[in-house]
Amino acid sequence: MAGGSGCCGCPVPSASWRAALAVVLDRCAGDLARVRRLGLDRFTAAVRRELPRWGAVRPCLRIVRAVFGALADSSGVVAHRPGALERAHLALGDWRETRARLAEVEARMAAVLDDLGLTSLLATIAGLTPVGAAAILAETGDPARFASPRSLARHAGLCPRDNASGGYQGKTPISGRGRPALRLAAWRAVRAALPDNPVMAARFTHLTTREENRLARQQARTACAAALLRWIHVIITRHVAWDPAIAAGSTPLQQARMNPAPAR
């Protein structure tokens, strides 16, 4: 019943599937026929009412119809269904409670960021969410305690580590000597920001497609995480908004540093 045979390829991320499953488990009391007797229209209306609890507004009617159709599926060991449905109902209840607690914690994190007067400043970094920024700052403390942006990246263990011996030059990994929780917070923030941050997306594309020293996607995300920490250090310690041109190295000063004039 849970998959719904064609309901959707990977049902768990679907808010429509979760809402439909919640309606089924809340009402069936171990007997799927009870929900089936509602009829498709009433079942769909119940799913619409449940959907906001899972972060959506409009249901995917194809999924709702597939879940309702699966209620008539008689395959499997029918005698075991009441126990299986009870366990699923308890698991779904735990899931809903965890989501509610997570939302409460995230709201408190964003409120602390706002109290510090940093929300609008950090929001200038395209794609960086208040929760993502708060998670990073919870691990770093005041960025001003680090002497430079690179020091903050080093604190996270995101600086390159030399891997050379004599004439041998191996691949350069990150040091990994800093705070694992900070690396994780920065990496998660990058995953969320990449679709909406053109500078970061361009950097990621360059690192994964360049001819020399091409990076794997995971390595490129790590490099972007280090860049994000450097950006955060600069805008907080200097109280300046994030500038995409500077971040991309496209200002005249940045270009001069990247491409110095040849010696005469």
What is the topological layout?
Layout: H1 15-28, H2 32-36, H3 40-50, H4 61-70, H5 81-115, H6 119-122, H7 130-140, H8 149-155, E1 164-165, E2 168-169, H9 180-193, H10 198-209, H11 217-238, H12 244-247, H13 252-258
Antiparallel strand pairs: 1-2
Helix pairs in contact: 1-3, 1-4, 1-5, 3-4, 5-7, 7-9, 8-11, 9-11, 10-11
Defining traits:
single chain, mainly alpha, 2 domains, 13 helices
Describe this structure in words.
The protein is an all-alpha fold. The chain has helices at residues 15-28, 32-36, 40-50, 61-70, 81-115, 119-122, 130-140, 149-155, 180-193, 198-209, 217-238, 244-247, 252-258; strands spanning 164-165, 168-169. It has two domains: 15-103, no CATH class; 116-258, no CATH class. The chain is elongated and about 65 Å long. The model is unreliable at 1-5, 162-170 and 252-264 (pLDDT under 50).
Counting DSSP H or I runs of 4 or more residues, the number of helices is 13
What would you call the structural class?
Answer: mainly alpha
Order the strands across the largest sheet as they lie in space.
1-2
- Number of strand segments: 2
Globular, elongated, flat, extended or rod-shaped: what is the shape?
elongated
Major sheet description: 2 strands, antiparallel
- Uncertain spans, ≥5 residues at pLDDT below 50? 1-5, 162-170, 252-264
Order of helices and strands: HHHHHHHHEEHHHHH
Q: Could you tell me the mean pLDDT?
A: 84
Provide the domain count.
2
Give the amount of beta strand, in percent: under 5%
Radius of gyration: 25 Å
First and last CA, distance: 77 Å
Helix share bin: 55-70%
